[in-house]
Amino acid sequence: MVQNIIDVRNLSKSFDISSKEPGLKGTIKHFFKRQTKSLKVIKDISFKIKEGEIVGFLGANGAGKTTILKMLCGLIYPSEGSILVSGYLPFRRKENFLKNITLIMGQKQQLIWDLPPIESFYLNASIYDLDKLEAKRRIKNLSEMLEIDEELFIPVRKLSLGQRMKSELLAALIHKPNILFLDEPTLGLDINAQRNLRKFLQKYNKETNATICLTSHYMKDITSLCKRVICVHEGSISYDGKLDLLLKKLSPVKEILIVCRSEEDAIKLENSGFTIKNKIKNEITIKIENNSITSSLKTILNNFDIEDLYINEPPIDEIIGRVLINKDYDI
Amino acid sequence: MNPRKYLKVYTKFLHTSLASELEYKTNILIDLITAILSLIGSIFLLSIFFQSNGSIGGWKFEEALIIQGIYTILNGITNTWFNPNLTEIVKHIREGTLDFVLLKPIDSQFFISLKKINPSGFLEIMLGFCLLFFCIRINQINLNLSFMTLFFITIICSICILYSLWFFISTTTIWFVKTWNAIEVLRSFLYIGRFPLNSFSFSLRIFFSVFIPIAFITTIPSEVFLGLSQLWKILLEIIVAAVFLTTSRKFWLFALKFYSSASS
After folding, report:
1. Of A40, A70, B34, B227, which is most buried, counting CB atoms within 10 Å of its CB?
2. Which residues of B touch A110 (CB under 8 A)?
3. A124 vs B contacts (CB less than 8 Å)
4. How do residues B90-141 score in pLDDT, each as one tens digit?
5. What one-character DSSP code corresponds to residue A232?
6. Beta-carbon neighbour count of residue A114 at 10 Å?
């Protein structure tokens, strides 16, 4: 049986936030008497993650995804509740725990700016107490997986964002962590670089059975990597489960554009009981529920003279976007 | 704590930061010239003070040069280690890159205090020692083992006090986010360390001994150098250094509980 590697129970986190009124008066008032209030950014959340799982955290900006990730890796102390990661209390940051995890942030970097990435890799290797031979072997393996070679010897400041991100990944994975926390790892990368990174993460997960917790605003990252998603809305979990189930729930119907051979056929189809979205001459768009799509299509093809048909899936970004911006959305 | 691992990591720190600095040759050259000019300027300033009076606060010019020599060594250490590392703490906290440090299986204080070095500070350290050797000649000081041991103990204590003060201020960034000014105030207080403590009024002497122990940093090692220091003063400096070091360590560990990381 696969073990739970992350166990979060009734976790909450509050921050003291100061607010400032606009203008000079507000600035002076803010300087002398700061108005602070306690803001609960994470509200009583619980979830478990199994070893080897890839879980995507979805949510709008400021929903609390990064705060959850930072509490899981031990950077932020929780205000209430408990977290166990690989059997450790993360905020104690025990050496063995730290050797098991890694955090990659798309918008921050740990590589030494003026030196080639290889120097940062060997520095990290010494911090993780790896001997030179082992470090060399791991750098070779990972650089092959990431498809970087010459870039290892070029100063970081001269690398492209994609090459830098690959190098960041290598630096973060040199100690073979079992749990990867990835905070928007594809941020700012072009489409090819994003695809390569996703391919690498899939391969790494397959080869090492590492658990991956991922936040990303690029839906493609989530759909191609994560079977399970946790939707965070204003600090609470609004959905925790399989991604395809979520999509089915949120988008129970598909739109089908049917091009009939004649306008008469289109009229016949219009009156045959299907839910019609619109009709323009011999082109008609109907809505069919996901669970009856095969039988409905069979009926249409058998009874009408059809020239062509297109199945339109609503874009996943649009579907998820609806959940993220509407707090009352019923999942 | 595994000393072998820490030594290995420190060797890597030295290697990477030297390599980083050597990428900018002109910058190093300018730093070297600045260090030489700064020492010449300081000695010139000191000589102006002593031109009208034969002595200030009971110290002759030749003796005051010892304080200048020790100050130069400490300033070199500041520029080599403290300045490149401890000013970075503010940046680490403001930009949230402290996250990477805290997630490494290594002591975070060790990492952020020693990761970088500025090689041009080495010249200042060497110049300081040269000035001290010159002072040995002109003050006809007898070198012996106990003298050397006491001198190095007091110098190490001075480094510890200086480091702790600076580290303490930098740590407060976790709450106040920007503390550049406080560090600048500390640096300007250190300039006072170029002059003998006795040259200040009684109230200032108390201030610089009790509140900001600049007196311990340069004057006591100088007195040891001249064979004038009393044992209680040396013991007091050791105690002050130990208290400062321990407090700054505990304060760092306490402050980390309040670290909220920067938003992404």
Report:
1. A70
2. 97, 100
3. 104
4. 888 888 889 999 999 999 999 999 999 988 888 889 988 998 888 888 888 8
5. E
6. 18
- Establish if A126 touches chain B: CB-CB under 8 angstroms: yes
User: In degrees to the nearest 10, what's the CA dihedral of B179, B185, B190, B191?
Assistant: 140
Nearest CA in chain A to B12: A123
> Is B51 an interface residue toward A (CB < 8 Å)?
no
The answer to whether residue A128 neighbours chain B at the CB level (below 8 Å) is yes
Q: Which residues in chain B are contacts of A232 at CB distance < 8 A?
A: none
CA gap A212, A156 in Å, rounded: 26
Tokens (6 digits) for B239: 């105690």
- The torsion defined by the Cα of B134, B218, B83 and B10, in degrees rounded to 10, comes to 80
Angle at B81 between CA B76 and CA B84, to 5 degrees: 110
Of the partner residues B20, B103, B257, the one whose CB lies closest to the CB of residue A112: B20
Residue B103: closest C-alpha in chain A:
A98
> A212 in helix, strand or coil?
strand
Q: What's B141's DSSP letter?
A: P
The interface predicted TM-score of the complex, written ipTM, equals 0.79
Q: Give the global pTM.
A: 0.80
In the predicted structure, residue B143 carries a pLDDT above the cut 80: no
